[in-house]
Amino acid sequence: MSRPDPAAAPAAAPTVADEDAAAVHLHEVGHVYDGAGGPVAALGPISLTVPSGTFLVLVGASGCGKSTLLRLVAGFEKPTSGTVLTGGAEPVPGRGAGVVFQQPRLFPWKTVGGNVELALRYAGVPRAERARRVPELLERVGLHDVADRRIWQISGGQQQRVAIARALAGDDPLLLLDEPFAALDALTRERLQEDLRRVSAQTGRTSVFVTHSVEEAVFLGSRVVVLTRRPGRIALDLEVGLPRTGIEPDELRALPEYAALRAEVGHAVRAAAA
Ligand SMILES: Nc1ncnc2c1ncn2[C@@H]1O[C@H](COP(=O)(O)OP(=O)(O)OP(=O)(O)O)[C@@H](O)[C@H]1O
Ligand SMILES: [Mg+2]
């Protein structure tokens, strides 16, 4: 477990060597929006290095800058100060990262299956393999029954699951997920958390996952970062030493270390929001 040391020297600018090692590197990143009523300092300054294979979960109060941070990492916005690198280079929107937004953004004129198929096509998966993998991905998110429906014929929670299946379909080294499970019922949410934990342990894809849920953060994260209120800075940076493979979800939740981590993160979230 590690915490930011306020006395430590500021993080050094990224060098070529650590560009290779770090999937995501934020150096002194700040973001200020031009709001209608004047500038809005949304994030930072924040420095963060996320090595490949990390499942990083960001937790923080509403409006503290979590979506802003994800948008910067996805390349949809440029930071107003500091540097963001993914895989050693400036992020390019639509390249190198599978993204699940807070609001699902799907092609409404396509079917559920069609949306997932398109993501596979973009990932360069050949037609025959696509035909096999679409039902497999839909089964994984519990949507196999509605594969032929149009997007406007399914519920909001189902739309969110299409977005998740689509992000899982690509083979981008980086997955960025902005509260993907927030609109789901408790049972589906738990099932998808378990799936995502297993899939991420199998594939080792680097992930940045945003949530309000302390429980979800500790269950999914190999590392949990708690942000302060706006402009979001790091309040807690915790390595989660829980086993990632060879353990059933219920066994994991029953571990005393799990309860201790949940209490620690919960405490930090409450303190950061106070
Ligand atoms: N385009 C924008 N123009 C002006 N202000 C913005 C813009 N986008 C976001 N903000 C403000 O920046 C702050 C951070 O927003 P952000 O969406 O990153 O928060 P968040 O942590 O994702 O919140 P939530 O948990 O509610 O999704 C908020 O105060 C928000 O109102
Ligand atoms: Mg948000």
Q: Distance between the terminal alpha carbons, to the nearest Å?
A: 23 Å
What is the CATH C-level name of the largest domain?
Answer: Alpha Beta
Largest sheet: 6 strands, mixed
Q: Order of SSEs, N→C?
A: HEEEHEEHHHEHEHEEHH
CATH architecture of the largest domain: 3-Layer(aba) Sandwich
Q: State the secondary-structure class.
A: alpha/beta
Radius of gyration: 19 Å
Which of globular, elongated, flat, extended, rod-shaped describes the shape?
globular
Helix content: 25-40%
Q: How many separate domains make up the residues?
A: 2
The name of the CATH superfamily of the largest domain reads: P-loop containing nucleotide triphosphate hydrolases
The strand count comes to 9
Mean pLDDT: 89
Q: How would you explain this protein's 3D organization?
A:
This protein is an alpha/beta fold. The protein has 9 helices and 9 strands. It has 2 domains: 1-6 and 52-78 and 91-96 and 175-274, Rossmann fold (3-Layer(aba) Sandwich); 99-171, no CATH class. The chain has helices at 16-21, 66-74, 112-122, 127-140, 156-169, 186-203, 214-220, 249-253, 256-273; strands at 22-35, 38-51, 55-59, 81-86, 97-100, 174-178, 206-211, 223-227, 234-239. Helix 3 crosses helix 4 and helix 7 packs across helix 9. Mean pLDDT is 89; it is low at 14-21. Residues 66-67, 102, 178 line the site of magnesium ion (MG).
